[in-house]
Structure to design on (328 residues):
């Protein structure tokens, strides 16, 4: 059976789709799975051993240059790729018009959320089959239920399996080795109201240094790099990484002993890799999109959202308690 799943963006949303792919591959061992995704996130579906082909699209880039000849050539190439294989089912789990637009171009019956379930109700008009999946539940659960209903199997476990066990061994070698007892600090996010104050990061870094632990800071923009360098100036044992791609970041997150971070896609990657630590939700409630650890995690990545829990002393205390419970 050939399946095309459409989950285009963003980083966290794409990661949230991985458990549904694991479920489907387990329920239907002969399933051939292709995945349509935005090009910046194309590495993620490729990590899952059940995904046969990743089909990248560049809607964000095309939108900026929609009159360019190259844009329409690339769109035509994607359409040809979708037409070359007959799919028994095409599932759009994004539930947006921009993702639903791809379903008529694929050769096969399409399925997706019904009008009441989709994030954008108009998206449901593009599907041959529509399914009801209540919206007031975690995104991972919605993806898993949509996939199960579409393919006709029953979910056998409430805990997600992202399919990433042993990922580091399958990735290209990274010429960076983190110091022992390192904590990955995921300080960057796309929304200012989701940030944790820089002075809190500095206080946390200083406390970790006193405990002979390193805080490792990745970054993806100049603003994030400047913040990381500011934290490093005010505390010892802080390692500011170079700018890295998703493969390298996944390898380094896997090396870290634990993770602390704000609401960002890399935080969900850490949860998918089974890393322990703390998720800091400063602006959004974690009930619908909070970090959910892989079912094989020894210790879960815990979500904190109340104002008192998000103060620097409280976060430091909880993180150190977690770290001290991990075998060195």
């Amino acid at each position: 059976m050939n399946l095309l799943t459409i989950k285009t963006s963003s980083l966290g949303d794409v990661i949230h789709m991985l458990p549904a792919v694991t479920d489907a591959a387990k329920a239907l061992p002969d399933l051939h799975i292709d995945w349509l995704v935005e090009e910046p996130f194309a590495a993620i579906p490729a990590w899952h051993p059940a995904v046969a082909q990743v089909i990248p699209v560049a809607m964000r880039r095309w939108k900026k240059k929609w009159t360019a000849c190259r844009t329409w050539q690339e769109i035509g190439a994607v359409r040809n790729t979708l037409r070359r294989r007959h799919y028994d089912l095409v599932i759009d789990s994004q539930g947006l018009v921009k993702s639903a637009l791809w379903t008529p171009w694929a050769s096969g019956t399409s399925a997706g959320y019904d009008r009441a379930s989709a994030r954008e109700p108009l998206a449901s008009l593009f599907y041959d089959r529509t399914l009801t999946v209540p919206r007031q539940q975690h995104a991972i659960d919605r993806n898993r239920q949509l996939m199960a209903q579409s393919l006709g199997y029953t979910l056998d476990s409430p805990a997600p399996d992202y399919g990433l066990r042993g990922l580091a061994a399958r990735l290209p070698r990274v010429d960076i080795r983190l110091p022992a007892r390192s904590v990955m600090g995921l300080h960057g996010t796309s929304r200012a109201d989701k940030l944790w104050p820089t002075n809190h990061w500095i206080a946390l870094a200083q406390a970790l240094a006193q405990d002979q632990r390193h805080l490792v800071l990745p970054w993806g923009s100049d603003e994030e790099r400047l913040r990381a360098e500011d934290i490093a100036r005010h505390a010892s044992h802080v390692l500011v990484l170079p700018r890295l791609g998703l493969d390298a970041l996944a390898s380094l997150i896997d090396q870290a002993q634990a993770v602390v971070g704000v609401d960002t896609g890399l935080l969900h990657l850490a949860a998918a890799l089974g890393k322990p630590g703390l998720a800091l939700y400063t602006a959004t409630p974690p009930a619908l999109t909070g970090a959910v650890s892989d079912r094989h995690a020894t210790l879960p990545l815990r979500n904190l959202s109340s104002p008192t829990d998000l103060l620097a002393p409280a976060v430091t205390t909880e993180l150190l308690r977690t770290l001290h419970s991990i075998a060195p």
